[in-house]
Amino acid sequence: MLTDVKEFVALTIVKREAKAVLREVQESLDRLEVTVLDWLLQQGVDKLTVDGMTVFPRNDIYLERKEGVDPVAVLVAAGMMDCVMAGSQRLKALAREARDGEVALPPAIAECYVVVERARLSARRATE
User: pTM here?
Assistant: First the structure.
């Protein structure tokens, strides 16, 4: 049993060290994302493949809550309980559909949130 405890402790230490390294990696990625994204957009490059990875800009939708508004109360009063239960993913999906012209953004959502679109940098393994 003592060997199991020792293994648990050793793995806990490895996990903590890995999390620290991951935090450093994420900080570097966040810093580089800004410069690489700016460069890609300035150059008009829609994707770039380097070292087997394709790097590309993509637009993300964010909903920023308006000051002094209770979104749950507004959405429930508008009969949009499904959005309250489903959470932000459902709200973001509606905002995306509105952006793409598929549906109009429901007034209750517009009353509660400001829809913000932000460019982000993504990378995926390049396909041959």
Answer: 0.64
Together in a domain, 73 and 123: yes
Closest of 22, 29, 25 to residue 121, by C-alpha: 29
Residues 20 and 54 in one domain: no
Quote the CA–CA distance of 41 and 56 in Å, as a whole number: 10
Query: What is the radius of gyration, based on Cα positions, of the chain?
Result: 21
CB atoms under 10 Å from CB of 94, counted, come to: 22
Only one residue has tokens 């829609």, namely 46
Domain that holds residue 16: 1-45
CA distance readout (Å), 104 to 8, 21, 88, 108, 120: 53, 44, 18, 11, 25
pLDDT in tens, 25-72: 999 999 999 999 999 999 999 999 999 999 999 988 888 989 999 988
Same domain, 58 and 85: yes
